[in-house]
Amino acid sequence: MPLNNQISGTGTAGTKAVIVVGGGLAGIAAAAALDSSGYRVTLLEARRELGGRASSFEDPESDQLLDNCQHVLLGCCTNLQNLYARLNVANRIEYHRRVHFLDSHGRQFDLWGVAGLPAPLHLGPAMLGFGALTISERKQIITAMLAMLRLGKPGREKLEGQPFGQWLQEHRQSDRVIERFYDPVLISALNEDTRKAGSKYAIEVFQDAMLMNQHGYVVGLPACALEQLYAQRPCPDTRLGARVSEIIFNDLRATAVVLQSGEKLTADAIILATNHHAVQRWIPENLRTADDRFTHLDKLESVPILGAHLWFDKPVMSLSHAALFEGPLQWLFRKDAEGKILHGVISAARDWVDKPRDQCAELFARQIQRLFPHSSARLLRQKIVIEKRATFSPLPGTDAYRPAQEPPAGGIANLFLAGDYTKTHWPATMEGAVRSGYLAAEALTRRIPGTDGNVTGKTFMIPDLPTEWPARWLSARNRR
Ligand SMILES: Cc1cc2nc3c(=O)[nH]c(=O)nc-3n(C[C@H](O)[C@H](O)[C@H](O)COP(=O)(O)OP(=O)(O)OC[C@H]3O[C@@H](n4cnc5c(N)ncnc54)[C@H](O)[C@@H]3O)c2cc1C
User: Fold this and answer.
1) Are 270 and 410 part of one and the same domain?
2) Which of helix, strand or coil describes residue 4?
3) CB 67 within 8 A of CB 307
4) Which of 88, 199, 315, 367 is the most exposed place for a label (fewest CB within 10 A)?
5) Is 53 a pocket residue for ligand 1 (Cβ < 6 Å)?
6) Distance 104 CA to ligand 1 centre (A)
7) Per the structure, how many domains does the chain have?
8) What confidence tens digit (pLDDT) does each residue in 464-475 have?
């Protein structure tokens, strides 16, 4: 592919200049990958810190660095773990092999995997003894899990257009099983109501996290504020407080970005790693016609998430985390050693956006009192953060609207996209964002020559955890 060498940008002789716009996880991943491969990378982030939607803010009242919301990863998030290793923070993630569930009276039920037992056998003993459900309800789930194994990855792709509610009905999953098993897992993983979400994404969560590999389900929680995970810059030229206001195009090439300060930076290639709302504003009408990646972005529906920081006068919860069978809060996390500071999360929080914060806090305090009746703790303070555009909704049919990272033939040849909304086949998650960054970086290396002047095409993506033999065997046996 011919390159416009007159616009060699900020690159020195022999190196190609790449600008990455947006320092969320997608932009960080793309910048780190390309920097390690000899490209001259400039990362531009509008805010004063990196991390985007997975970041922290200073709370002047408590003098603490608070996360906008608790972020959870799973063992199957192979690319996110790889990025944490690149940033030298892999040891800041604490992994929990026991996943705790609480009913509305605080009775605890755990799911855990037997160490060393391959999937899906590892969860067998915990599933068989999961006292939150009757024996016949547990049987229902096992039948559904076998059906998911039988589908494999190709089978779930075919269900892209089907709501998961329909699949659950076809597989005779009762309302109580949905409330006590599917809802706690899926509403938070997909940020969507279990029945409304696309079957492909819902089944992917169970296949990747529970059924294929014994390490997939393990819950990872950062042991520090999210912002501290990005202390090591992904590339030397990382600029914070650098808001891009315009992209300059010359025919079907992006040649430069203009910052709000008026500064203009030229480049050989640009990766847009902002959310899709920003991307839409920058692409002129005539280029949108030539490049179909921008055609359907306005069809992606945004869904809010609520995060509640709650300070109590006495210890409340000793567990590190708990999924709750009954709301309003769906998950709770302990944020200090004593259990006096808790963080609660509501995903798919459409009904909470306009509720007065005090009213929300009162409801949460009452729920926590019911959960932990022996603690006479009083709520001292609350800080509720609602991210209105937290993620896009993985509704059935959404894949048709998610753009590829790489330009199509006849599209804007040196403009790449990254972001959780791009085509990764993952829901909007930190793992999805990192995958998008690595995919964008890989696409760029297929089109823009590296230091040696050759277009080599690098691989940054980390493979999924391998499917273990019982899962392979059960899947093949069931398919007969
Ligand atoms: C409340 C909440 C809870 C969540 N919980 C989880 C969870 O538990 N587990 C999980 O895996 N995922 C979770 N997610 C999803 C996860 O945070 C996102 O999928 C991921 O962080 C998206 O990363 P991104 O890089 O694609 O986008 P963003 O993080 O949105 O990054 C885009 C960046 O671009 C920057 N930008 C925008 N415009 C400009 C401009 N003009 N110039 C320069 N920079 C610009 C923004 O400031 C931002 O930093 C949660 C999200 C939210 C909001």
Assistant:
1) yes
2) coil
3) yes
4) 88
5) yes
6) 32
7) 2
8) 999 999 999 988
* Tally of CB atoms within 10 A around 147: 15
**Distance between CA 388 and CA 203 in Å, rounded?**
26
Return the ligand 1 atom nearest residue 26 CA: 25
CATH of the domain at 293: 3.50.50.60
For residue 385, which atom of ligand 1 is closest to its CA? 1
Residue 456 lies in a domain: yes
Q: Is 46 in the pocket of ligand 1 (CB under 6 A)?
A: yes
Torsion angle of alpha carbons 289, 269, 277, 252, nearest 10°? -10
Residue 26 belongs to what domain range? 1-54+72-97+218-299+401-473
Instruction: Give the C-alpha separation, 214 to 231, whole Å.
Output: 32
Q: Do 183 and 136 reside in the same domain of the chain?
A: yes
Residue nearest to atom 48 of ligand 1 (CA): 52
For residue 28, the ligand 1 atom closest to its alpha carbon is: 25
Give the tens place of pLDDT for each residue, 113-166. Answer: 999 999 999 999 999 999 999 999 999 999 999 999 999 999 999 999 999 999
Report if pTM > 0.90. yes
- CA-proximal residue: ligand 1, atom 49 (nearest): 52
Q: Is the domain of 88 the same as that of 123?
A: no
